[in-house]
Amino acid sequence: MTHDASIKPEIDAPEGPAPEGLEITDITVGDGAEAQAGSTVNVHYVGVEYDSGEEFDSSWGRGEAINFPLAALVRGWQEGIPGMKVGGRRKLVLPPHLAYGPAGGGHPLSGKTLIFVIDLLGVS
User: Fold this and answer.
1) How far apart are the two ends of the chain, measured CA to CA in Å?
2) Where is the composition biased (Basic and acidic residues) (predicted)?
3) Which among 3, 16, 68, 78 is least buried, having the fewest CB atoms inside 10 angstroms?
């Protein structure tokens, strides 16, 4: 299954309880360079809350991809992006301990399970 990287992905509302651990699902497997733990990644992404299905962030909404060292991102991204190849689209489901920590942690998303769909556009 391929996807059109110029179109923002839609995330279906999840069913059932949130997972305890990181869930990684490849929607499309890329054929470009592979992201490593120490890579800087260029990505388009959309993030929604697991429980509500509400979108809380999207690079698509800003109209430009982001470029970040993986080491600077939440742990679920640090664990879920390596092995992904440029041109791929991957869904990550991050429990709170791999996202913004337990409830009361000071971040608006603390205590929440998050879903991200990420298009890997480049690695360096």
Assistant:
1) 26
2) 1-11
3) 16
